[in-house]
Structures are given as structure tokens and as C-alpha cells.
């Protein structure tokens, strides 16, 4: 029987759903029944800490140096219950223009005798996956990001768990907000897109939702809040994505500089807005930044299931030698699309279709915009 070796890595920001995908990729690849059907015996190794796991120097033992680890069905048996990634992750960019180490990655893929590589990540990680594909490496991708901003797929791992966190945390805030008759501004993640704020806000019933795709007027936010008070609201919850900004303003940056992929660290809009609301309405306003809580914790049922399906589908692509693809979820089906159609593109919220620009909230019509 032919023997082949698969490597698997997780890159970029962690989230819930990565471990279920790893588990099911390993179980599917090493399944004994499927093995005899395929006539190929797969071995799977874990690459640690994203692309960094493939950046060990000559003379370094990758196992002892904490770059790779063995995986098998017993090792991954319980992983689907846990958040984060058991393989570790990093925002390492081997093609960083300031320090291009991509040769090392390609040489190490050869050294490790990898016949195929599964990369689980967002646009950055899969951007690297696309580049190594063009260098002749057999890669398949699995989409993950709580921002749900990738194109060609209606789901990215981690999103639904993050929406659950938002819903639970806002439920908690409601009691204290109501007791004190306060306004709470809750800042969510979402660098370029507002899916998380929007769907999180729809799930928790936020009064106002502000997203990067629609610049907002502070005066209008305050008018809406006062309108709510007049109508009898005891308190209001306002959700704002970290990338949202007031009209004529710029996004709020938490820290100077950029990461290896050129991203700024955003944050601060929630606190700023709470100040403006305090001033503009005279109502006591507080802000809360949900930050990495949204990426933490055990995967919800949906992320466990989608991680499972994506992991299985990734191995299917390897078995059929359909490389250079990303597994995706479209129209209720697990399917795939070329990596080069995904990378560098962003799935923005369609404001006309999904957002109410008058109320700064989720849509109130469903069928009117259906083609
Ligand atoms: O993965 C995307 C994201 O969740 C963004 O919404 C956010 O800006 C970023 O991660 C923060 O990542 P970190 O602080 O881990 O670098």
C-alpha cells in the first residue's frame, strides 16, 4: 500500500472550531476502513504555531525543537471539545517583505516529506497557502475567522461561538444596565467587516449596531438613544465593531505599528463613543470591550459540526488530489473553491440588503431584497 504524509497547521488568530477540524482531518485520514478503499495509508503530523512550525533552521530536530508533533486518532480523540488550537498558532508570514523566509518553509516541507498540507486559517494564512501552492506544494485550506469576512464561503470556523459569547455577555450586561438605567457600548472584534457585530447584535437584541461598512453620525446615534428613552427604555445596549468609525473620522487604533501581514491593531471606538454619548445625551454611559473573550472558550455545537465537516472535506480533497483548494460552505452544501479566488478579497456586509441605515441596526425586511 502507498504511504503518504499529511501535515496540518493552524495560523492567524485562534478561535473555537480549530480543534474539531484538526480532529476530523486526522480521523478521516487515518481511518482504517477508508484506508483499504483508497489504497493509501496516510500518516498525519501536526505543524506547531502556524507557518512558524515550518521555519526551523538546518541542524534543528523539528520534534525536539517544538516545531512538529505526531498525531493519531487516539491523540486527537477528545480535541473537538476544546477551544483554541492544540497545535498553537502565530501570525507568522514567511513572505514578510521585511524578512522573506519562504525558502526555508519550502525546504522544510521537502525535509519532512510532506505529500500534502492542510492549512487552517483566514485570509493571511491561506494567502501563504496560495503562494506555496504556486511553488508546487500540495495544499488544501480550511477557512476560519470570527470576522466571517472570507469570500466564497458562507461560514468560517469560530464565528458562531463568538456570536454566542456576545449574546451571553450582553445578557449579563442587561441586568446591570437596567438596574442603573445606563447605556452600555459593547465593542466587538471585526476589523474590516461588521458580520460579528451585526449578527451578534441581532442575536442579543442590541438597540443599535454600528459596523465598518456604514460610517455613523454621532448625533444620529444620540438621537436614536434619546428616542428610545422617550419610548420607555430603561437602558440601551449598543454594539460597535472595532473597525467602525464616525463619518469623516478614521478607525481607532489600539497600538502603533502593524503585524507581519501589515494589519493595524484596532480598538478604542467603544470608549470614545461612550464619552460622546455621555456628553450628547446626558445619560450615564459605560463601555465594555469583549476583545479576545470572543475567540475563547469551548466551541459551540455548530463549530464542532462545521469543524468536523471541513476537516473531512479537506481530506477528501487530498484523496482526490484536488489541491490548491479551500473547503467552503455554500447554499447548504460543503464544497470547495480555488484558493486564488479567495485570498486578498473581503466579504463585506451588504448594507442595502442586511443593514438598516435609519435605525443603525439589523434589517427589518427579509423578502423585499430577495431576487
Ligand atoms: O482574526 C481577526 C481578528 O479577530 C480581528 O477581528 C481582530 O482585529 C484581530 O483578530 C485581533 O487579533 P490579535 O489581537 O490576536 O492579533
Explain what the structure shows.
- With 371 residues, this protein is of the alpha/beta class.
- It has helices at 18-30, 32-38, 73-76, 102-111, 123-134, 159-180, 195-204, 218-230, 269-281, 301-319, 351-354; strands at residues 2-10, 40-47, 68-71, 116-121, 139-143, 183-188, 208-210, 236-241, 253-258, 264-266, 285-289, 325-330, 333-338, 355-356, 361-362.
- Helices cover 34% and strands 21% of the residues.
- The strands form four sheets. A seven-stranded mixed sheet has the order 3-2-1-4-5-12-13, with helices on both faces. The chain has a four-stranded parallel sheet with strand order 7-8-6-11, with helices on both faces. A two-stranded antiparallel sheet has the order 9-10.
- The protein is elongated, with a radius of gyration of 22 Å.
- The termini are far apart.
- Bound molecules: 6-O-phosphono-beta-D-fructofuranose.
- Residues 12-13, 122, 145-147, 189-191, 242, 266 line the site of 6-O-phosphono-beta-D-fructofuranose (F6P).
Q: Summary?
A:
By secondary structure, the chain is an alpha/beta fold. The protein has helices at 18-30, 32-38, 73-76, 102-111, 123-134, 159-180, 195-204, 218-230, 269-281, 301-319, 351-354; strands at residues 2-10, 40-47, 68-71, 116-121, 139-143, 183-188, 208-210, 236-241, 253-258, 264-266, 285-289, 325-330, 333-338, 355-356, 361-362.
